[in-house]
């Protein structure tokens, strides 16, 4: 895979405009969600490092659920984007129906665990009884939002795959303001409310997610669009459609769930390294996400643009545009690496943490910058390029083998056996990104993803 001349890319104004039109709103929405998580941690951080650790570990449950839901909607988006390329609205709504069913079914499991056995769930991540108590009190309330999130994600995925990316951004802005206002109200006991601490943060999150889902449904069903499906259209599936759906989507669902489960084991290791380590990695990941939103937007745009082109049988065009996208990715990496180093110190200063935790965060972010070129390629290649053409089994192998054969052994070696500082452990774990880069580049070059999977 060679770099496309930047002049050639710059002449394709139509392509650049389309990338920007899709990627920027998605990146902005991800940035808003990241800022919300950051504000949450800053507000909760005022309650102490144990509160950050407790909520951070409790949210690993939501992290695994989010990855399961992402697997469902990301896999569904492969079909949605290609069906949209051939303007097949009937099958788009069928995909939405299956996505909703699977999302609600999956979220129900996490909902029941968080609601009825939160302490047992928390003990998976940490032996610290104080942290368990804090996390369980948060989990009992926030678990009520899980089914709501499944509905929201399913509809947003269809809107994105059909090039309607602006409405979710505005809705996210509203839900973030709702969350911040209620955070302030319920965490600290303002405007006459009782001070609820971390339970207040959970209640604010629940309210915000209900508002977000309600607004998404209002936007979708207010006027005609691809996602405006009636119940009979959502359940109008046959054996042939279900077979095609699961052949395409099941590797993606397995990919995200097994990858998420593996990454959750990292949290198990971090939890046994102490609250300082958990607080350090929790804050580090918030800062990383701010630096990563543009690449996430580019990855999402890749899946939509190339998926639409493959569905419309424009295979050569999709192949050419994939090279353009990797050129953009390399340019973004350079910009984001510098940006991360600049904002690192000011962001760390926002948190009420010890000098040791601040030192840990600084070094973890250095690790992030070092691995950024490999990590960004893997995101765009696996989530954007390989999946859009249905090469989902290769994507599954890359992600799962990276976590389970490289990352997890490194986590236990560094964090449990050698008892290294958190930033060394994080560097050892993140080596999986280099492994995936080597194999992923070879897979991309085979061009097995360049195919129409929904028919002529």
Automatic annotation (TrEMBL):
Compartment(s) of residence: Cell membrane
Record's keyword annotation contains RNA-binding: no
Alphabetized UniProt keyword annotations: Antiport, Cell membrane, Ion transport, Membrane, Transmembrane, Transmembrane helix, Transport
Entry GO terms, CC: plasma membrane
DNA repair recorded as keyword: no
Pfam families, A to Z: MatE (PF01554)
Any one of the GO BP annotations: monoatomic ion transport
Membrane topology: Multi-pass membrane protein
GO MF term set: antiporter activity; xenobiotic transmembrane transporter activity
TM region positions: 20-39, 51-74, 95-117, 137-157, 169-189, 201-221, 324-344, 395-416
Similarity annotation: Belongs to the multi antimicrobial extrusion (MATE) (TC 2.A.66.1) family.
Primary role: Multidrug efflux pump.
Protein name, UniProt field: Probable multidrug resistance protein NorM
